[in-house]
From TrEMBL:
GO terms for cellular component: plasma membrane. The keyword Transmembrane applies. This is MFS transporter. Residues 26-426 form the Major facilitator superfamily (MFS) profile domain. Its main location: membrane. Pfam families: MFS_1. It comes from Streptomyces subrutilus. The chain crosses the membrane at residues 24-49, 61-81, 93-113, 119-138, 150-171, 183-202, 245-263, 283-302, 314-333, 339-359, 371-390, 402-421. It is found in: Cell membrane. It is a multi-pass membrane protein. Keywords: Membrane, Transmembrane, Transmembrane helix. GO terms for molecular function: transmembrane transporter activity.
């Protein structure tokens, strides 16, 4: 498009010409803080299972069902949230989502029945968190960055791990010393604290401040896209007719099953079954968060330089091997082999996200963020299934061993599926291809 002479932003400054840090990095910083804050409510479910079981005598399967509703809605909301961000802007979607999370979390303090846990934590927190899921990171990255997209995706993905590092020890201490209710209130207050950062500091598009995306050329802000829900469903319909979508959705479902659904939800109660204190088990999850930051940022760097599908195959294969060894490592005390598992698994935790986003962008162009929203939905459906089935398996078999072994086998399948994804010839076409 040719710019008119009268346009006030006719000569936007590139980051090199401006001689200062590009505004895109400040937007990424605000997104980073927002995602860190969201890690508070992502860290709590695994800490609730035993306290709720003891106080209300609800089965682990029942509690796992509420967690599974949360995880499923987290994923199923994401593609609609991505489309809503195109229609109304990032701030007008993320800020209300944080308020919904705060309300749902604090409402659990007064619950007396299992259905209320499903409603407050499962439905409300699930809908709110899904509106600011990884599709939020993908939208920020796609709009504000042309260069360094892989690196920025890795950094924003690692923000969740950073938040886990901050909140897991605090929340586990609160649950152990003061009960689960103060922990739920803490999650609510954290969500409220993030709202001003989003509303006052986040900007929807580089053209809002007269800039080009980092590493790119200036383009006017696109008009709002009407019919957000219709667009999300339309994009799904087109993408569903292509092979790469189903392979990406399948591998990411296994990713969710083997991380959020399995380890984040069931590692603490599984370790407690072997005599490990809850605070020690939660501390190990926090250490996973430390190495997740390193692994995810490194994965973003690798994604800028190596073929994404090969990276995915390596990540899933290594994760599967580590999960097969975990049942032999659980013990009352933390020992060196367990530390090795935590480090190894942490490096791989969400390293799959940058190459998955890159493949969505490569195959589906401008619709890549919405397509990734649907791929993320499959991630959370996989997580939800294992969150429920893991608790059910614990009730039936008296241990989690079968769940660890099954997840290791699924990761091996995901590694094979990743290699089947065909590479799209450059340059990538805009929009969803009809026969990819």
């Amino acid at each position: 498009m040719t710019q008119t002479d009268s346009a006030p932003t006719a000569a936007p400054r590139s980051p090199r010409q401006a001689g200062r840090v590009h505004r895109a990095w400040f937007v990424a910083a605000v997104a980073f803080v927002t995602i860190i804050g969201s890690a508070a409510f992502a860290s709590l479910p695994g800490l609730l299972i035993e306290p709720l079981h003891e106080e209300f005598d609800w089965s682990r399967g029942t509690i796992g069902f509420a967690v599974s509703v949360n995880l499923a809605l987290y994923g199923l909301t994401a593609p609609f949230a991505a489309a809503l961000m195109d229609r109304f802007g990032i701030r007008r979607v993320v800020a209300p989502a944080l308020l919904v999370i705060a309300g749902g979390s604090v409402a659990t303090v007064w619950m007396t029945a299992a259905w209320q846990l499903v409603l407050f934590w499962g439905v409300l927190v699930g809908l709110g968190s899904g509106s600011m899921a990884l599709a939020f990171a993908a939208t920020v990255t796609n709009r504000w960055f042309t260069a360094r997209r892989g690196l920025v995706t890795g950094i924003l993905t690692a923000a969740g791990a950073s938040g886990q590092l901050v909140f897991l020890p605090l929340l586990s201490w609160l649950v152990e010393e003061h009960g689960w209710r103060p922990a739920a209130v803490t999650v609510s207050l954290t969500a409220l604290t993030v709202v001003p950062f989003v509303w006052l500091l986040l900007r929807d598009h580089p053209a809002d401040v007269g800039l080009a995306p980092y590493g790119g050329t200036y383009a006017p802000k696109p008009a709002p896209v009407p019919g957000a829900a219709r667009r999300a469903v339309t994009v799904l319909g087109k993408a569903a007719r292509t092979g790469p979508f189903w392979l990406l959705a399948g591998t990411f479902a296994i990713c969710g099953a083997s991380t959020n659904g399995l380890v984040k939800t069931h590692f603490v109660p599984a370790a407690h079954d072997h005599g490990m204190p809850v605070t020690a088990a939660a501390g190990l999850l926090a250490v996973i968060g430390v190495f997740d930051v390193v692994g995810t940022v490194a994965s973003g760097w690798f994604t800028d330089r190596f073929e994404a599908r090969r990276l995915l195959a390596v990540y899933y294969a290594l994760r599967g091997v580590s999960l097969l060894f975990l049942p032999m490592l659980l013990a009352p005390a933390v020992h060196p082999p367990m530390i090795f598992f935590i480090v190894f698994y942490g490096l791989d935790w969400v390293a799959t996200v940058p190459p998955t986003i890159a493949l969505c962008r490569e195959h589906y162009g401008e619709d890549g963020a919405v397509v990734f929203g649907w791929v993320l939905a499959s991630h959370q459906v996989g997580a939800a299934a294992v969150a429920f089935l893991g608790g059910l398996a614990r009730d039936v078999f008296g241990s989690y061993d079968v769940v660890w072994y099954a997840s290791g086998a699924l990761c091996a399948m995901a590694a094979l599926m990743s290699m089947v994804i065909r590479r799209r010839p450059a340059p990538a076409a805009t929009g969803v291809p009809a026969g990819a």
